[in-house]
Design goal:
By secondary structure, the protein is an alpha/beta fold. The chain has a five-stranded parallel beta sheet with strand order 3-2-1-7-18. The chain has a five-stranded parallel beta sheet with strand order 9-16-10-11-12. Strands 21-22-25-24-23 form a five-stranded antiparallel beta sheet, sandwiched between helices. Strand 19 and strand 20 form a beta hairpin.
Length: 452
């Protein structure tokens, strides 16, 4: 039995079905929404017009899942898990009826929910969270019938900056209100400053160190402005980009173990700790950070799909494990690319690590090749050993995916000295002779040596 019909849940169901046929394994899945197996990460690009059709974001429809002998029940929400009784209580949202269904093996893939602070006016028409295709469609409907062209995005994390770009592409005047010192709190502040400067240069008004106190409404109760302690920012539409939290209310009520960040705790096989026949994956779980050794909550479709493959293999009678993550993520706002992997400075301090940092500027291509543009790379290395701890990159075309070099090096436990010998591809259209990541590694080696 699977609770949740998106990345982790349906990947688990599909993988289990590959291993065992309908005569050997019955699979029942519940999804409370209208869609399955869709790319939530693609919603900002659909809203912004880069992706033309909503259905382009759907990897597999309910009908396609059912053709694979998966009993998928749409618009059905699980409202209770009875662990001792090995059953769940489901509510058919269309018929408004509830019924119990028993399970032998349970997969919890309930995802995450957008943070929606209890502010006055937060539920006013024109205020939108963006997590599901239904959310994206509701936002597009609002944009289509709104005469004004002023938008406020609350929050400047991945969703915030991506939605700022989407609204700029739609011709809106965009203000981003951010409680942090700089946008992109997943970066150190000095790298976030580069994002701030670039977004301001694109015509996006950045308001940092500002706490939203309420949403102001006007005629008909619709949103008209976002208020902070110091100012009001006119708005015809408001988008919440504050982040997400694990959707684990069901698990909490069932007495299942949760971590520091509210996500379910699992073992390497993605089994819920202490429960042999319950698995969990996707945005509702916490994962092991391989660099710091701590549990983290990271809501990314890449992890969710891998979790699903592992769960499906184990529930289907095979064997697989998910060892953890190094915290790699990329994003963009207009032509600015943003990437990070591993630890930030505050993460390293929290883990009790002594470290050195270096920051270099280079170009994405050979400096003489047309289209060469600046990119900035920041690298952290452990002070005593020179072991790579983290990398952050901000730059133009071709910058973000370079973080994958660092992600592989982190996973392999490489030192910055070892990185300098990596045999990376080179040609003037793609890189300088010394790739910017290797330039940073060479500088980090020198910093480690200076520290003894």
């Amino acid at each position: 039995m699977v609770i949740g019909g998106d990345a982790a849940g349906m990947s688990a169901a599909s993988q289990a079905r590959r291993l065992k046929g309908p005569d050997e394994l019955e699979i029942v899945a519940f999804e409370r929404g209208h869609f399955t197996s869709f790319s939530a990460c693609g919603i900002p690009y659909w809203v912004g017009g880069d992706v033309e059709e909503r259905d382009d974001l759907i990897a597999r429809t309910p009908e396609e899942h059912r053709e694979r002998a998966i009993d998928l029940r749409m618009r059905t929400e699980v409202v209770r898990i009875d662990v001792p009784g090995r059953r769940v209580l489901a509510r058919d949202l269309e018929a408004d009826e509830e019924y119990w269904t028993s399970y032998d093996k349970l997969v919890i893939a309930t995802g995450a929910r957008p943070v929606r602070p209890p502010l006055p006016g937060i539920d006013a028409p024109g205020v939108h969270g963006v997590q599901t295709l239904d959310d994206g469609q509701a936002l597009l409907d609002t944009l289509g019938r709104t005469e004004g062209r002023r938008a406020v995005v609350i929050g400047a994390g991945y969703i915030g900056v991506e939605m700022a770009e989407a609204l700029i592409n739609r011709g809106y005047e965009v203000t981003v209100v951010n409680r942090g010192r700089e946008p992109m709190s997943t970066l150190d502040a000095d790298m976030g400053r580069l994002v701030h400067e670039a977004m301001s240069g694109m015509g996006i008004e950045m308001v940092n160190d500002a706490e939203v106190t309420k949403i102001l409404t006007g005629d008909g109760g619709r949103v008209r402005a976002v208020a902070t302690e110091d100012a009001e920012y006119p708005a015809d539409v408001v988008v919440l980009g504050i982040g997400v939290r694990p959707e684990t209310g069901l698990a909490r009520e069932a007495g299942l173990p949760l971590g520091e960040h509210g996500g379910l705790l699992t073992d390497l096989a993605m089994r819920v700790r202490g429960h042999a026949d319950i698995w969990a994956g996707g945005d509702c779980v916490e994962v092991l950070d391989l660099v710091s050794g701590r549990e983290r909550h990271i809501a990314l479709g890449t992890h969710a799909n891998k979790h699903g493959q592992v769960i499906g293999s184990n529930a289907g009678g095979g064997y697989a494990t998910f060892p953890g993550v190094v915290g790699t993520a990329v994003s963009k706002v207009c032509d600015l690319e943003i990437a990070r992997t591993g630890l930030r400075e505050k993460d390293a301090r929290a883990a009790g690590l002594q470290y050195v940092t270096v920051t270099i500027e280079s170009t994405n291509r050979a400096g003489y090749y047309p289209g060469a543009a600046l990119m900035t790379v920041k690298m952290l290395a452990e002070r005593r050993t020179g072991k790579l701890l983290g990398v952050q990159i901000v730059g133009r075309e071709g910058s973000a995916k370079r973080v994958d070099i660092a992600a592989v090096a982190l996973t392999a436990g490489m030192t910055v000295d070892q990185m300098t010998a990596l045999d990376l591809g080179y040609a003037p259209p793609f890189s300088p002779v010394w790739d910017p990541v290797l330039v940073a590694a060479r500088k980090a080696v020198a910093a480690v040596r200076r520290q003894g």
